[in-house]
Amino acid sequence: MSAFKALRDISNKFENELRKLSTELFSAKIDDAFEDNISKKMRDLALFNSKLRLLQAKPLSVTPQVTEIPKNEQTTISDYTDTVTWKIIEQQVVKTLTQTHAVKNLITTSSRELDPELVERKEKIIEQLHKYREHESQLRHLEAVLQEKEDELLHTRQIWDESLSNLKDSQKLPQNEEIATGPLYKKLQVLISKMELMRWLIAKLVTSRTGGYDWATDPHKRLNALALARQHHTIQDYTES
After folding, report:
1. Above 80 in pLDDT, residue 236?
2. Would you state the pLDDT for residue 166?
3. Domain ranges of the chain
4. Between residues 77 and 137, which one has the greater pLDDT?
5. Residue 125 CA: distances (Å) to CA of 9, 100, 103, 110, 134
6. Quick one: which of 8, 20, 5 has its CA closest to 52?
């Protein structure tokens, strides 16, 4: 029990030192270059981290989570892959922070205080930042236009689906079923009624005063008129043709 207590005290001590160093890393103001300070702090953190892992290796090695995992080539490669991945991520984060800080200092520093080479680099960076800002504005505009067109497409698709559904429903109706709701249908009804009345009048006119008419030669073409008078007119004759 005393060994575990000592290990706990040492771990707590290292944890406090790591927290202190982390605080100094992001808040301390020193005269050294930022890049050198970052490198030095990272080396110190790596050293303390290695010591902490070494102290924790013994008790962790006897836990069920470790002893129950079979050790083979695949698990070993997987462990090393995870370690290398996190190491690369750590290096990229440090590199990004360092470059960001250096670029910020370069842009905010007056050109009169910089060397000609740094002034040229500063101008190129500012030019690229302006281009990036323009491209970002264009991208936002294109995204807005794309969203608008997608909304229009969705609305048009809904109209298309409704029209297609109505068309399919209309095709299911019987052929002789009429929809007497439109104005053209009512006009057709009126015209057919007038045609039927004219047919009746034609028959009356043709058959009147026929006492001395020569039906054999039919000089007035009354037989043709009678044939027309015998033809009935219905709405179906004009809607189903």
Report:
1. no
2. 82
3. 7-112, 113-167, 183-239
4. 137
5. 50, 12, 8, 14, 14
6. 8
pLDDT attached to residue 176: 46
Nearest to 97 by CA among 147, 37, 50, 180: 37
Question: Under a CB-based contact definition with an 8 Å cutoff, are residues 14 and 51 in contact?
Answer: yes
8 A C-beta contact, residue 229 and residue 199:
yes
- Owner of token pair 């953190």: 45
Angstrom distance (rounded) from CA 148 to CA 167: 29
CA angle 119, 125, 128 (to 5 degrees): 145
User: Is-above-0.90 flag for pTM?
Assistant: no
Contact criterion met (CB below 8 Å) for 38 and 98: yes
**Buried/exposed code over 94-129 (b: 16+ C-beta within 10 A; e: otherwise):** eeeeeeeeeeeeeeeeeeeeeeeeebeebeeeeeee
Q: Report the C-alpha gap between 107 and 124 in whole angstroms.
A: 10
Q: How many CB atoms lie within 10 A of CB 154?
A: 9
Residue 101 and residue 34 in contact, taking contact as beta carbons nearer than 8 Å: yes
Question: How far is it, in rounded angstroms, from Cα 115 to Cα 101?
Answer: 18
What distances in angstroms separate CA 92 from CA 10, 21, 63, 88, 89, one per listed residue? 31, 20, 33, 6, 5
